[in-house]
Design a protein that fits this description.
The complex is a heterodimer. By secondary structure, chain A is mainly alpha-helical. Helix content of chain A is 71%, strand content 0%. In chain A, helix 3 packs antiparallel against helix 4 and helix 10 runs antiparallel to helix 11. Chain B is mostly helical. Helices cover 79% and strands 0% of the residues of chain B. The N and C termini of chain B lie far apart (49 Å). Classes of the chains: A mainly alpha, B mainly alpha. At the A-B interface, helix 1, helix 2, helix 3, helix 4 and helix 5 of A face helix 1, helix 2, helix 3 and helix 4 of B.
């Protein structure tokens, strides 16, 4: 991927104002999804700090939705951990393309890595890189504002839960909808369709043979094994 | 286990493992490029995981009893169609969830099937 032209940034305009302008699209998106998350946690009967801690410490949209889903279904901690790894495995790809940008960010680097959501990654890779000693601070402001939007929206969603005049039955479908959207994004961007077919057949087969509780880990292991066998065809 | 302890433990584990997925490429491949086999596998992991997760979500549906998963299938079709058309994740998720909530709360599918 070629970066757009580097520029000396953040010197003239106030850095916070600039970061805010950059993050407006994420503000809109996180407000909507965050409110849905807060509402869902409220409707499951959990206390407010579950929303706050999850959004502050985990800070991953899909990961939080499926996490609260598993928690309320009574799943064990090992399974919750495993699913978290699977759902967030896409993040591993992000870091590979951010080495250069994060190189000179100094003390901001750990937070930048922690706060690397899909949306923050998209912003950081589609805006021109900031050069010089301001880079760390400029990226930090973008990442930090995004997380503030996310936490605030979750808390708003939780707070308005009791005033919502309609039933929230079926709200959990938002999780399925989220994964369908992510799957379609993958289908559009990945030229080879065989991995989808393999994973789909393996997942249905494992569900029928081993049941829903065991299907995630078995499906992934079998799918990766199939990937190894078919390496020559796919590479 | 006490309820709050279990919640806190789960959040701690999720937080640690989410951070792990984000920091791993910086720790493992800070100087050298990842080996070919890793690059090969990791490019297909997101497609496979998303496929498995969609099946996992739908595996919760009771396909044997009325309404036989019809609300889920209709709502998934709405999400997919909207997303292919507009490519806007928010619109797709909100409309699909709205349609699903309407169907399960109003019993619309039940009524339709009784009518048939």
């Amino acid at each position: 991927m070629n970066d757009p032209d580097p520029r000396e940034s953040s010197n003239k305009e106030a850095p916070l104002a600039e970061a805010f302008t950059t993050t407006v699209p994420v503000l809109l998106g996180y407000t909507a999804i965050g409110i849905a998350f807060g509402l869902l946690v409220y409707s499951m009967g959990y206390p407010w700090w579950v929303v706050f801690l999850m959004s502050a410490l985990i800070y991953a949209g899909a990961g939080q939705f499926i996490g609260i889903d598993l928690l309320s279904a009574g799943s064990g901690i090992p399974e919750i951990g495993l699913v978290t790894l699977l759902v967030n495995s896409r993040h591993m790809v992000y870091g590979l393309s951010l080495h250069n940008r994060f190189h000179n960010t100094g003390g901001y680097k750990p937070y930048l890595i922690f706060a690397l959501t899909d949306e923050t990654y998209a912003l950081l890779t589609t805006t021109p890189p900031v050069t010089g000693s301001n880079a760390g601070r400029a990226y930090f402001l973008v990442a930090f504002l995004n997380q503030m939007y996310w936490i605030s929206a979750g808390m708003i969603g939780f707070s308005i839960g009791k005033y919502i005049p309609f039933s929230t039955e079926g709200l959990g479908f938002a999780l399925t909808a989220l994964f369908v959207v992510l799957l379609i994004e993958q289908l559009v961007s990945c030229r080879k369709k065989l991995p989808f077919i393999i994973a789909g057949c393996v997942a249905v087969g494992t569900f029928l043979l081993a049941g829903r509780d065991n299907m995630l880990i078995i499906s992934l292991v079998v799918s990766i094994a199939a990937l190894m066998v078919l390496r020559r065809r796919l590479e | 286990m006490e309820v709050h302890t279990r919640i806190l433990l789960a959040i701690g584990v999720m937080a640690a493992l989410t951070f792990f997925t984000r920091v791993a490429p910086f720790l493992l491949f800070s100087r050298r490029n990842p080996p070919r086999i890793i690059r090969y596998v990791q490019q297909y992991i997101p497609p496979m995981v998303m496929t498995i997760l969609v099946v996992y979500c739908l595996a919760d549906v009771d396909w044997q009893a009325a309404p036989y998963g019809i609300p889920e299938l209709i709502a998934v079709a709405v999400v997919a169609a909207l997303h292919l058309w507009r490519r806007n994740a928010l619109i797709s998720i909100f409309c699909g969830t709205g349609v699903y909530m309407f169907m399960v709360q109003s019993g619309a599918v039940h009524c339709l099937m009784r009518g048939l």
